[in-house]
Specification:
With about 300 residues, the protein is mostly helical. The protein contains 14 helices and 2 strands, in the order ααββαααααααααααα. Helix 4 runs antiparallel to helix 11, helix 11 runs antiparallel to helix 14 and helix 13 runs antiparallel to helix 14. The protein has a two-stranded antiparallel ribbon.
């Protein structure tokens, strides 16, 4: 059989017949042709800008000329007080806004998953609607509602005798306004993801727990939360990354003020790059954000692997 097969291959090669190996090579060429447009677009709009920004982060404009300075721009990050302030503001969002939003999302998802609740479809749509609105549109609406003079929120609290609050020009209240707006926007989005996780839990687990005499809190803490751990981990990490990359809301609501109380790393990058035109330092800030995001993603993968 071996001699006959080798002879057949020799005859096929001499006669120009197609063998499996030559057929595979012929099929590779059309595949490359079809993939070429996507590869070109990837190289032009992702790979090249990424490499260019990395090189730009190691340069500096001196006297109208671009000079290579190595890691000087990254060293500058450690001595820039606004970098620390922006990371501190992002940390406040991570500590306060993300847990608050997660708790609301879990509570709403658990409520909408109950069998006794009527009009569940309408409630789901109602809670998810904020996620459909554009970032700029809802930020403008919140800015109008939170205006010190004539804002809807101050008018409502004035009806019960509370003095007007300077929501957007006070450091504390500006952060409160930012947290409230982000929570309103993204709670429904996370709720839908968590609700999908709840619906994937087998009903036999609930029945077995009830037969053992478990109450609602025991079922929630011993069954629901452990089963939702991968979903909660995913939504928590994505919310953390979103808080770190926040730009639209604070840019429109407060512009990063007052006194840089709502300045975030991405907003600071925008100001350095497009107002001060220091694109080298702005690129370094961008890569700093990428590094922090990569660390958070690595933690996510590590935790997911340990839990699994």
């Amino acid at each position: 059989m071996t001699v006959s097969s080798s002879r057949a291959r020799t005859r096929a090669a001499q006669g120009g017949l197609t063998t499996p190996r030559t057929l595979g090579r012929k099929l590779q060429r059309p595949g490359l042709y079809f993939a070429a447009p996507a590869l070109v677009l990837f190289a032009l709009f992702f790979a090249y800008p990424l490499g260019s920004s990395l090189y730009q982060s190691m340069t500096k404009t001196v006297g109208g000329q671009t000079v290579f300075v190595g890691l000087d721009q990254y060293v500058r990050l450690f001595s820039d007080p606004l970098i620390g302030k922006s990371l501190f503001n992002a940390g406040i969002l991570l500590v306060i806004q993300v847990p608050l939003m997660m708790c609301l999302a879990v509570g709403l998802a658990y409520l909408l998953n109950q069998t006794w609740l009527k009009f569940k479809g309408g409630f789901r749509v109602l809670h998810f609607l904020p996620a459909v609105t554009t970032l700029v549109a809802y930020s403008v609406v919140f800015r109008v509602m939170l205006a010190t003079d004539g804002g809807a929120v101050n008018q409502m609290i004035g009806l019960i005798g509370i003095a007007p609050v300077d929501w957007l020009n006070n450091e504390v209240w500006a952060r409160v306004a930012l947290i409230a707006s982000i929570t309103w926007r993204w709670t429904g989005y996370n709720m839908v993801i968590i609700l999908a996780g709840l619906q994937a839990i087998p009903g036999e687990l609930y029945e077995a727990a009830r037969m053992d005499g478990a109450g609602r809190w025991a079922i929630f803490s011993k069954i629901v939360v452990p089963q939702l751990r991968p979903v909660l981990l995913f939504t928590g990490i994505t919310s953390t990354i979103g808080a770190l990359q926040l730009f639209d809301e604070n840019f429109i609501l407060t512009g990063g003020g007052p006194s840089d109380a709502t300045l975030t790393p991405v907003l600071y990058l925008y100001k350095v790059g497009f107002r001060q035109f220091d694109f080298g330092y702005a690129s370094a800030i961008g890569w700093m954000i990428v590094a922090i995001t990569a660390v958070i993603a690595l933690i996510q993968f590590r935790l997911t692997r340990e839990k699994s």
